[in-house]
Amino acid sequence: MQNVTDRTSNPFGLRPPFDRTPPDERTAVFGYGDANADFHLIGDHPGVHGGKRTGVPFTETDAGLAVQDVFRETGFVSGSQDEPDLENLFCSYVHMCCLPNGHQPTARDYDDLERFFDAELRAINAHILLPVGAQATDHVLQQYTTQRRHLELDMSDLHARQIRGRGFMVVPIRNPPDWDEGDRETIVETLEEILASDYRQTKGVATLVG
Questions:
Q1: CA 76: distance to chain centroid?
Q2: What does the CA dihedral 27, 25, 47, 161 come to, rounded to 10 degrees?
Q3: What residues contact 181, with CB distance under 8 A and at least 6 apart?
Q4: Using N-to-C axis directions, what is the helix angle for 133-144 and 107-124, rounded to 10°?
Q5: What is the rounded CA–CA span in Å between residue 36 and residue 48?
Q6: Cβ(90)–Cβ(124) below 8 Å
Q7: pLDDT class for 167, splitting at 50, 70, 90?
Q8: In whole angstroms, what separates CA 30 from the centre of its chain?
Q9: Within 12-96, where are the H helices?
Q10: What's CA 206's distance to the chain center, in Å?
Q11: What three-state secondary structure class fits 198?
Q12: What phi, psi does 34 have (nearest 5°)?
């Protein structure tokens, strides 16, 4: 089932539940990309992965651009860095609201935004979830798989692993500032492997065939 929308940014018209930014700053960085994508890239918040100026996830910051570059190399991204064209890829944050520079979301902040993230994730209904960093990975594994209690939150070990979820395949990505030699090449190779397979698995089975 396809979403009937041509909106690239915030295709479902979400409204943030709080605004803690000055009057002249952006309230939130909404989901962005192809609303019918098979791949859903999930970051932490705008202070980490960017977008406070552009309004686009995975822009501006070194970490955000490093992730964007991986997906550019694997054919999902083209065009400018600040307003890229995405094909078969949707990007969003577990915490979409912007905070003043230097501030980090609290546990309550994440909880307040969980229902918004969940609604958008289920509306996109992608096959492959790609959380970036420990915060996003922990949330995705807890909410969309039964695997979290069996896995240590060790991003060096989880990086680029294919983990079966409840109707999804989860492929965690280590946050770029923590990448060791070979981490970038590993996630590129994993994405290319998935693209070469029959990844459009039946919902609820979440296995790769091919």
A1: 13
A2: 40
A3: none
A4: 60
A5: 26
A6: yes
A7: confident
A8: 11
A9: 46-49, 62-73
A10: 18
A11: strand
A12: -90, 110
The answer to whether the beta carbons of residues 30 and 81 sit under 8 Å apart is: no
- Please, which residues have CB within 8 angstroms of residue 19's CB and are 6 or more apart in sequence? 27, 97
User: Angle 135-35-191 (CA atoms, 0-180°, nearest 5)?
Assistant: 60
Mean predicted confidence (pLDDT) in 51-74: 97
pTM above 0.85, yes or no: yes
Q: What is the 8-class DSSP label of residue 79?
A: E
In which residue are the tokens 């859903």 written?
Answer: 40
Beta bridge partners of residue 86, listed in sequence order: 77
In tens, the pLDDT along 7-50 reads 889 898 888 887 787 777 899 999 999 999 999 999 999 999 99
Look up tokens 């979409």; give the residue: 96
CA 31, 129, 102 angle in degrees (round to 5)?
A: 50
Residue type at 139 in one-letter notation = H
User: What domains can be seen in the chain, in order of their start residue?
Assistant: 32-195 (3.40.470.10)
Measured between alpha carbons, how far is 210 from 200 in angstroms, rounded to an integer?
11
Beta strands 84-86 and 77-79 are antiparallel
Number of alpha helices (DSSP H) and beta strands (DSSP E) in the chain: 6, 8
Given the structure tokens 């295709």, which residue do they identify?
Answer: 11
> Following DSSP, what letter does each residue of 83-127 receive, concatenated?
SEEESSEEEEESS-B---TT----HHHHHHHHHHHHHHHHHH--S
